[in-house]
Specification:
The complex is a heterodimer. By secondary structure, chain A is mainly beta. Helix content of chain A is 0%, strand content 53%. Chain B is built from no helices and twelve strands. In chain B, strands 2, 5, 6, 10, 11 and 12 form a six-stranded mixed sheet that branches. A four-stranded antiparallel sheet of chain B has the order 3-9-8-7, with no helix packed on it. In chain B, strands 1-4 form a two-stranded antiparallel ribbon. Helices cover 0% and strands 52% of the residues of chain B. Classes of the chains: A mainly beta, B mainly beta. Chains A and B meet through β4, β5, β9 and β10 of A and β5, β6, β10 and β11 of B.
């Protein structure tokens, strides 16, 4: 049983560039979450999906951030016109709506560095 | 608003010592869930335990035990006979179940170093 996977694991980009991260949840998990974690802090919720519907996105940090889950399976998180303050770890988690909806299982994260 | 406080930023213990990590939470929800996650240096958050607000029984799993006290809004985590492999950052978290999203609110974490 594979866990949550994220790609890439590391990303270095220059300020002003766009970046896209991918998350593949655990098979059959209906809910998918994105979090951001900065150094010395706990993860901070960004957005979540139930199947392909994005049910909460008010916590996305700015309009430069967007997320999709087009077929209810994998998800992408895009940051446009990156800024140095976007440097952080971006974590994805998934949970099963019926059997264990409260428990989120996390992927290894994508560490972003904006130069 | 929900809040999780982990007052201990860093703890160092010598191997085989017992250690307790504190967690205090705030919520207006009557139904909520509390969690502990472990984040080793590799970065991946590892789920350890979930406790719902109706169940105040303490739980033991091997060397790990958890003490949930609703009266003091605390959910403390004890590692008995610590080992070097326990070195990690430990996060306490709380769900926002009222909105149906189960988004997690995390504390800032406690970095545990177990010295051989």
């Amino acid at each position: 049983d594979t866990g949550v996977s994220q790609d890439p694991r590391h990303k270095i980009t220059k300020r002003g560039q766009n970046v896209t991260f991918r998350c593949d949840p655990i098979s059959e998990h209906n809910r998918l979450y994105w979090y951001r974690q900065t150094l010395g802090q706990g993860p901070e919720f960004l957005t979540y999906f139930q199947n392909e519907a994005q049910l909460e996105k008010s916590r996305l940090l700015s309009d430069r951030f967007s997320a999709e889950r087009p077929k209810g399976s994998f998800s992408t998180l895009e940051i446009q016109r990156t800024e140095q303050g976007d440097s952080a770890m971006y974590l994805c988690a998934s949970s099963h709506l019926i059997t264990e909806q409260e428990t989120q299982y996390f992927g290894p994260g994508t560490r972003l560095l904006v130069l | 608003a929900q809040k999780v406080t982990q007052a201990q930023t860093e703890i160092s213990v010598v191997e085989k010592e017992d250690v307790t990590l504190d967690c205090v939470y705030e919520t207006r929800d009557t139904t909520y869930y509390l969690f502990w996650y472990k984040q080793p240096p590799s970065g991946e958050l590892v789920f350890l335990i979930r406790r719902n607000s109706f169940d105040e029984q303490n739980e033991i799993s091997g060397r790990y035990s958890w003490n949930f006290q609703k009266s003091t809004s605390s959910f403390n985590f004890t590692i008995t006979a610590s080992q070097v492999v326990d070195s990690a950052v430990y996060f306490c978290a709380l769900t926002n179940s009222g909105a149906g999203s189960y988004q997690l609110t995390f504390g800032k974490g406690t970095k545990l170093s177990v010295i051989p």
